[in-house]
Specification:
heterotrimer; A mainly alpha (481); B mainly alpha (324); C alpha/beta (262); A: 481 residues; mainly alpha; ABC transporter involved in vitamin B12 uptake, BtuC; 2 domains; two-stranded antiparallel ribbon; globular; C: 262 residues; alpha/beta; Rossmann fold; 6-stranded mixed β-sheet; 4-stranded antiparallel β-sheet; 10 strands; 38% helix
């Protein structure tokens, strides 16, 4: 680099070299996330994560620790395993959740009342992990002959076959249905450390945290090694990798085995923590959730998986049916406001939008009430702190079921239209869209939170892919199509 | 497992008929998958849910026109209307899905449209659940069009049209087979003889090249989705007529099997999709009949994996030769 | 006593359906030579490379490297034996950094296992240092163009000429004895071409590689070749020095047609 060059000359070496830095400066929130990933060294990020995570049991109740703490850690583990297969080796494994299920069921068979076998974890966990890794290896064998999409198909069907097998086939082995059919297997032993049972949530949490940290460390070193590089090369261009002395088939199998082993480990932990497993735990929606975890953070990035798991699991749990709806409602409105703040610039336009929504709401509510009291007499489900505002502002009819459905369809149409228009049209359309979404939330979503969860999740996936396929922490990849 | 002690020819024929009927359904669904994959190399996981919407639209039309127990018009035009409504609605839905969930991802890494498709699938399935609730809706096809539905007197749909070895082939099954056959023929002619068909074939070989030759690839792709979804809509109504029950989750398993059919037959091949559909339908029917219902699905999956391992490009598919 | 050639093809035939891309092809390269492979497009030159590196399997014939038959070996094994290639249409690992591209290719001659990597055992750490050093060394072969801050740039940021150089550097990292360069000068301007010609000479003189080059640019061919082999439609037309080959009527006919030969 020459001295005395103050202004970057477009097209010249230094300008090209600093391209990535300039990109990072521009993108707002994601840019910040990327900067953290790039500038903060790995060990510091790990320590920070460990420190924050270790404090959780100190201020979270048992129920929350289970849902928010333990489940997030399990999703991190699953995401890390899938990341090895998809992120590092670029292989599309749509049957991954079945490996998770296999690990869980196998652990359940080895450590429960089902057959009366109670192996200590020091034996059962390694056995399960190795077996799952072998199964993953077997699953990977077709990858020799099958190109990308076909591999996806075969693995997808393996995943489905697993669920059907466990659920319906349930062959009788040693006098007992092997997998317990639709009821699954219950009364599973907790994990134990050399005889000491981990039965309290706090104990389980710390155990799983340690496991996650160890796996993170191991994967980090693996990624920086010749195998990690070879996996990345394999993902880029398998033919070139093979020509450059890398045994592509063997590497693919290793990736499958590794990812599967981690899934098996997650399965052991999951089964022990839940003390029961059924096929429903390992169906397609869970697979997609794991994929979302990996993709949201940016495929291939360990930090990304951690962040993705946290974001997804926390949102999911917030919208869980068991959760008081007032929390979910607060989250919902908060997210809407946040989205508006991030998306609508400059601030005076934002003001117009927020003002317009408020005015529209009040006006519509008044008109509806004037038409007939039944239009606004519907109760706000579990009002909580916002009850007063919502019931006076949102149209919630009593007994007009068609209305709720019509509102929902109208909302979908409006959102789609929003993506197609620009400028002031868009700003104008945002106003009724926001109001409608409040209506839909209060009339349909709060009544069926589990369904709402999946609708939002599906919409999020589509939105995420169309807007930012590389995820939060990923860099836009150059791909040879 | 219940294995018949003696070869029961009546059972065999019944299963054969069931298998072919079911196979027609799967074949129609498979066509949609095949066509879209052929042109975009995209596995459209949302396709099964489009099929489900078709079944619901058919039910909606049925309800609008008086409901299965007291229809306002004669059964023949009623069924035609149901088909048309479902086909058009699904065709439109397919175009919308492509426009919003896939088109922005034309040049994105391969995993992106896949995940987007899964997102659309979740969205559709759960929207149906939200809008229609979890309970099954019924076409009541057993009594549909009958003079005394309250007395469970069977309607014309179950009337035997042919009898083979003591097995009735019902009107509804003939309708399904006839409709499938005509749709198949129409599609094959369209792809082989018309300009749009030629454009579709060109786009599937080389999208950029086709665009450079003046073909509006966006429109071609939209048409492909339209046609594929149209067929799925028809299949949805057929399912309702055959089995009566429609529910929000039906798209998942049917979609999966339709997908199996497309892959087994050779994805990207139209005759392959129908052949695959027949194979899957027959496999499922015979497995259910001879091995018991629990093994039916597994048998289908097993066949898929076997075919893929032995002949990765499917039965009628072509091997892609990579130029290095 | 006749020296055993480093590498030879003996009566190699390969067809794709009805198209014969190699027809009883025989050629050899002796150690320390620089041989050029020329011929019009579709002559089968890249096919030869693909056959040699194991990407295609010949229908019949032998391919010997250091006297040993390599037909049927998987490509990565052949590379590990000592044959490395570049691609006509560059196939870099675009999203990896320049240095990583080169380091990746060193896989074949390193041995530390996955477990050694995870637990950071001494052999793994040592090999990492050695691979990094090797990469820097190979990149330094190209002067200042691929070193310094460049090494940590993603490969997709590189200019075209630099990408070609990186491909060669990457192939060098496999520690080959024989380098196969597929149209290394394609798309380069005269200055870059000239530099490349010198580079290929240095590959032999400084790095002791034996080189087989596919090239269209006759200036390059003339500048580097000990021997030239001309192909057309999968058949060897002739071989010899540059002067002999390019005045051979068969060769002229292949390039320019009968009128040109007349």
């Amino acid at each position: 680099m020459e001295a005395g060059e103050d202004r970057p000359r477009v097209g010249v070496d230094e300008w090209v070299a600093s391209h990535d830095d300039r990109l990072a400066e521009r993108t707002g929130f994601a840019g910040l996330a990327r900067k953290i990933d790039d500038r903060v060294p790995a060990w510091a990020r790990l320590t920070l994560f460990a420190a924050v995570a270790a404090t959780l049991p100190l201020w979270m109740g048992r129920g929350d620790l289970f849902a928010y703490g333990i489940f997030t850690l399990i999703y991190i583990l699953l995401g890390l395993g899938l990341n090895v297969i998809v992120g590092n080796a670029g292989l599309l494994d749509l049957g991954y959740v079945a490996l998770f299920g296999f690990g869980a069921y196998f652990y359940a068979l080895l450590s429960s009342e089902h057959y009366g076998i109670h192996w200590p974890s020091a034996i059962s966990i390694p056995v399960v992990v190795v077996s799952t890794a072998l199964l993953g290896l077997v699953l990977g064998i077709p990858s020799r002959r099958l190109l990308g999409d076909y591999l996806a198909i075969v693995t997808l069907f393996f995943g489905q076959a697993f669920v059907v097998f466990v659920n319906a086939a349930n062959p009788t082995v040693a006098g007992h249905g092997l997998t317990g059919g639709p009821n699954g297997i219950a009364d599973i032993d907790p994990n134990d450390i050399f005889g000491y049972d981990l039965s309290s949530r706090t104990q389980q949490y710390y155990f799983i945290l340690v496991v996650v940290l160890l796996v993170l460390i191991g994967l980090h070193f693996l990624s920086e090694s010749r195998t990690g590089r070879a996996w990345r090369a394999l993902r880029e261009d398998p033919l070139a990798a093979e020509a450059m002395s890398m045994p592509v088939n063997r590497l693919k199998l290793m990736a499958f085995a590794f990812g599967a082993g981690i899934a098996g480990l997650a399965g052991c932990i999951f089964a022990a923590v839940l003390t029961a497993v059924t096929s429903g735990n390992f169906a397609l929606p869970i697979l997609i959730t794991i994929y979302a975890v990996v993709i949201l953070g940016g495929i291939g990035s360990l930090t990304g998986v951690v962040i993705g798991a946290i974001v997804i699991n926390v949102s999911f749990q917030f919208l869980a049916p068991e959760n008081p709806q007032q929390n979910a409602r607060i989250l919902f409105y908060a997210v809407i406001v946040l989205l508006l703040v991030l998306a609508v610039r400059p601030w005076w336009r934002l003001g117009i939008v927020l003002g317009g929504v408020a005015v529209l709401g009040v006006a519509a509510h008044a008109i509806a009430a004037a038409i007939s009291p039944s239009w606004t007499s519907g109760a706000v489900v579990e009002g909580g702190r916002l009850a007063g505002v919502t019931s006076d502002w949102v149209i919630i009819p009593a007994g007009h079921e068609r209305f709720a459905n019509a509102a929902y369809i109208a909302l979908v149409v409006l959102v789609l239209t929003l993506t197609r228009v620009h400028g002031w049209w868009r700003t104008a359309l945002v106003i009724p869209t926001v109001y409608l979404s409040a209506i839909v939330w209060e009339t349909s979503f709060v009544e069926q939170p589990a369904v709402a969860r999946w609708i939002l999740f599906g919409a999020l996936l589509v939105f995420l892919m169309t807007v930012r396929p590389q995820g939060l922490l990923g860099t836009p990849r150059v791909e040879i199509v | 497992m219940d294995l018949p002690l003696a070869f029961n020819s009546e059972l065999f024929v019944q299963l054969l008929v069931n298998g072919i009927t079911l196979g027609s359904l799967y074949g129609l669904i498979a066509l949609g998958y095949s066509m879209v994959y052929g042109i975009l190399k995209l596995l459209n996981f949302a396709h099964g849910d489009v099929y489900m919407i078709g079944a619901f639209v058919g039910y909606g039309v049925l309800t609008l026109l008086g409901g299965p127990l007291s229809p306002n018009i004669a059964i023949a035009p009623l069924i035609v209307l149901m088909f048309l409504a479902a086909m058009l609605a699904c065709g439109a839905l397919g175009v919308v899905i492509e426009r919003f969930a896939y088109r922005p991802l034309r040049d994105a890494p391969r995993i992106a449209p896949l995940i987007s498709a899964l997102g659309v699938s979740f969205f559709l399935q759960n929207s149906a659940l939200l809008l229609f609730g979890a309970q099954f809706r019924s076409y009541d096809s057993f009594v549909l069009g009958s003079k005394n539905p309250e007395f469970f007197e069977p309607g014309p749909l179950t009337d035997p049209v042919f009898v083979v070895k003591h097995v009735n082939i019902q009107l509804v099954q003939v309708i399904v087979l006839a409709t499938t056959a005509s749709l198949m023929v129409a599609l094959t002619l369209l792809v082989a003889k018309t300009r749009i068909g030629k454009a579709m074939r060109a786009t599937s070989y080389d999208r950029e090249g086709a665009a450079m030759m003046g073909i509006d690839t966006d429109r071609v792709i939209a048409s492909t989705f339209f046609m594929g979804s149209l067929l799925a809509g028809a299949a949805g109504v057929m399912f309702g007529l055959l089995f009566s029950q429609v529910f929000h989750f039906m798209g998942f398993l049917a979609g999966l099997k339709g997908f199996t059919a497309a892959v087994v037959g050779g994805i990207g091949s139209i005759p392959g999709a129908m052949l695959g559909g027949l194979l899957v339908g027959l496999a499922e029917a015979f497995a259910a009949g001879y091995l018991g219902g629990r093994w039916a699905d597994l048998t289908v999956f097993g066949i898929l994996i076997l075919v893929l391992l032995v002949r990765p490009s499917g039965l009628l598919g072509t091997r892609a030769i990579q130029k290095v | 006593m006749r020296k055993v050639p480093l590498f030879e093809l003996k009566d190699v035939t390969k067809s794709f359906g009805g198209l014969t891309v190699a027809d009883k092809l025989s050629l050899h390269v002796d150690e320390g030579e620089i041989v050029s492979l020329i011929g019009p497009n579709g002559a089968g030159k890249t096919t030869v490379f693909n056959l040699v590196t194991g990407i295609y399997r010949p229908d019949s014939g032998e391919i010997r490297f250091e006297g040993r038959n390599v037909v049927g070996l998987p490509p990565h094994k052949i590379t590990q034996l000592g044959i490395a290639r570049t691609f006509q249409t560059l196939r870099l690992f675009l999203n990896m950094t320049v240095k990583e591209n080169v380091m990746a290719a060193a896989y074949g001659h390193t041995h530390s296992t996955v477990f050694e990597a995870i637990f950071r055992l001494p052999r793994a750490r040592r090999e990492e240092r050695e691979i990094a050093h090797l990469a820097e060394e190979k990149l330094a072969f190209f002067g200042t163009r691929l070193v310094g801050y460049r090494m940590n740039q993603q490969a997709y940021n590189l200019s075209y000429a630099n990408r070609r150089r990186l491909e060669i550097a990457r192939a060098m990292a496999t520690n080959p004895k024989l380098l196969l360069l597929d149209e290394p000068a394609a798309g380069m301007n005269p200055a870059e071409t000239h530099e490349l010609t010198e580079l290929i000479g240095r590959l032999r003189s400084e790095a002791d590689y034996t080189v087989l080059v596919i090239e269209h640019d006759m200036h390059v061919v003339e500048g580097i070749s000990d021997r030239v082999v001309a192909l057309d439609h999968g058949v060897k037309l002739c071989e010899g020095s540059f002067g002999e080959v390019c005045t051979n009527p068969l060769v002229i006919e292949a390039y320019l047609g009968l009128q040109g030969a007349a």
